[in-house]
Amino acid sequence: MEGKGKVNGVAAMAACYQGFDPAAYLQYNYTPPRADFERKDSIVPWKLACLHRAFTEGDVRGELLVDIGSGPTLYQVLSGCEVFNKVLLTDFLEVNRQELRGWLEDEGGCNLDWTPYLQHVCELEGRRPSAWTEKAAKLRQVITDIVPVDVHRPQPLALDALPSEGADCLVSCFCLESVSPDLAAFTRALGHIGRLLRTGGHLLLIGALGESYYFGGPGVRIPVVPLNEAQVCASLKESGYTLIRLEVYTLPQDMRVGVDDVSGVFFVKAIKE
Ligand SMILES: C[S@@+](CC[C@H](N)C(=O)[O-])C[C@H]1O[C@@H](n2cnc3c(N)ncnc32)[C@H](O)[C@@H]1O
Ligand SMILES: O=[N+]([O-])c1ccc2c(c1)CN[C@@H](CO)C2
């Protein structure tokens, strides 16, 4: 039964994603108040600060950074693109891969202006905000490809997507818990992506705490595995990671804007043993 349940649960999740709307998703989560660079307590600046610190404190290094479940967003690699000379973006949906290609090709074909994000990360790096054009060029230079991914497969990427030694670092934000029908599937998915990472490589994981659904577009209600910190830590341990740091952001009332029931956000830095 468990095997049958597994297939139905994963297939049902895939069906939910057919209505995913990148433009709406970006509007819901990546514009003010959740992305307000003037507010100390806004969620996106908190995420960017966690990622900046994690990528720049000296232990993360290598050739290839892979972002698992990129969606239509780029914020998750704005610090990493200065550390790695190859960045691979991935998503399950062609509409999201197309959104990312629109930015990459720089022909105005994308649904969010990433300039404030680029400027903010430049400031975190001690650079002038006007250096955002250099950062944009750097990011366009290091992104090697935008490929399909399915974290429920033991091999989430095509076999030729990675070098034999695997990725040096993985980043994944709001993906695993938002695509898994239950905690067991979340933990299995964590193990699957771990196989893409070389031993000693780092995992930077951002995710939702206490979230049971979110809207991926108007009327597109997508179920989420409600996680707490203990479950995240247990799943990491079970999947062969050693936790380096866990940070938690608790949403103030005015960050609860009706597009989900998320109560907190976790940031994990871990290493694959
Ligand atoms: C909540 S969005 C996260 C997007 C982005 N990483 C962010 O931080 O906002 C979840 C993403 O997971 C993708 N997804 C859905 N099913 C998936 C699967 N089986 N494997 C990998 N990604 C999947 C969706 O297409 C979507 O882009
Ligand atoms: O506040 N945020 O920055 C933010 C960004 C993305 C997402 C959330 C919150 C909460 N829902 C998840 C999907 O499970 C997606």
From TrEMBL:
Highest rank taxon of the organism: Eukaryota
Annotated keywords: Methyltransferase, S-adenosyl-L-methionine, Transferase
Transmembrane annotation, as ranges: none
GO biological process terms held by the UniProt record: methylation
Gene Ontology terms, MF aspect: S-adenosylmethionine-dependent methyltransferase activity
A matching Pfam family: NNMT_PNMT_TEMT
InterPro entries reported in the protein's UniProt record: NNMT_TEMT_trans (IPR000940), SAM-dependent_MTases_sf (IPR029063)
PANTHER family cross-referenced by the UniProt entry: NNMT/PNMT/TEMT FAMILY MEMBER, PHENYLETHANOLAMINE N-METHYLTRANSFERASE
Family classification: Belongs to the class I-like SAM-binding methyltransferase superfamily. NNMT/PNMT/TEMT family.
Protein name as it appears in the record: Phenylethanolamine N-methyltransferase
Native species: Pagothenia borchgrevinki
